[in-house]
Design a protein that fits this description.
Elements lengths: L1 H21 L3 H7 L2 H8 L3 H14 L4 H25 L3 H8 L2 H34 L3 H18 L2 H11 L4 H9 L4 H9 L11 H15 L2 H16 L4 H4 L3 H36 L11 H12 L1 H33 L14 H19 L4 H28 L1 H4 L6 H24 L1
Amino acid sequence: MQQLIHRNAFLLSRAFASARDRLPDTKALAKRLGPGLITGAADDDPSGIATYSQAGSQFRFGLVWTLLLTTPLMIGIQMLSARIGWVTGQGLAANIAKVCPRWLTLGLVALLVVANTINIAADIGAMAEAARMLVGGSRVLYIVGFGALCVLGQVCFSYERSVRILKRLTLALFSYFAVVMVVQVPWRQATVESLQPWAFFPADANFSDYASMVVAVLGTTISPYLFFWQASQEVEEIQTRPHAAELRLVPAYAQEHLFRIKQDTYIGMSFSNVIALCIVVATAVTLNMHGITNIQTSGQAAEALRPVAGEFAFAVFALGIVGTGLLAVPVLAGSAAYAVSEVFDWKASLSHGFHEARGFYAIIIAATGIGALMSVFELDPIKALLWSAIVNGVISVPIMVVMMWIGQSPRVMGSLTISGRHRFFGWAATAVMAVAVAVMFVTA
């Protein structure tokens, strides 16, 4: 009997060990995540939080379907941008310059810089307002402090350290999970209204308002600065590995890294849209259902939560604004710097010191500094979001068309062109954005 017990214990321990070996290694997975996770998290910046808060407070659960629609489209177009960067070893702007006239490339990059700077202004202003609500103090001092912190983080830290910091900042987004957990969500009602939004249309809203909010959500979710950032981060990843460029020609190595890009992007973009869903649901429950339907900024959303959901929900929501802003502003400034530097053939890498890549860092400093200055003069957050959405809408469609052309081109991508399924989702995302832009101009 004793031997039988020992034998069964041994077999049981072997079974547990075998099961443990089959479980995913979370530490290894965390190391594999990088450009996709950071890009997805940066999409939920304070400006995005404001848009999702407006959607939830004004239309309750009536815009949840847009997040379900954009998730596969967002994954498809971001995978394409990452693939272009890794396969070609160059950023998106450098690849666009290869296939487009010089004037068109310069125009798209200039508009990208303008849109990113306006977005930075809105984000820094939202961070400063959230910090002021939490601990008091001067809004201007917070603007200067956050702007300086974002610049110094990129100028003073190496690429590897910057990535580690940005990955940790993605944890700030879990604050919105916490908000959803502390409020009572009527999930059955949320499901019904999200599947039949036309049946629960607010009495005081019209179709133009609804269409504008749909466009705003789509434009917030699929933004050009995300394309440029993720492509450039894949180039950075190559530069940190001495023999990566040569190994790209080895089929097994290429397939393994393309799988890593796919895994990273799936997780990053899914995480991004789940957080967006949490924000919409949280504001729908705490604001719309209590008669608060006119939210203009993320700070107003946080303040409105205080009397309805309590101090904890307010504090968590406001802290999330600060955390996501510290993540998003470097991504916005960095994507503009990568694009400009690639067009003018400047050194563009966070791995280089300031003296090696002065032009690159000058763009980061200028975009962040001008954005902070605009915030000091109290830029109207609604106008900032409107102009940012318009500029992003103007440039997103042509950029996506060129990206699809590059992804399908054997001349540029060699044997690693995108698959038929990838083409479907890429062109679908392009078509959805084209329709959204058209609706934006028609209903403006």
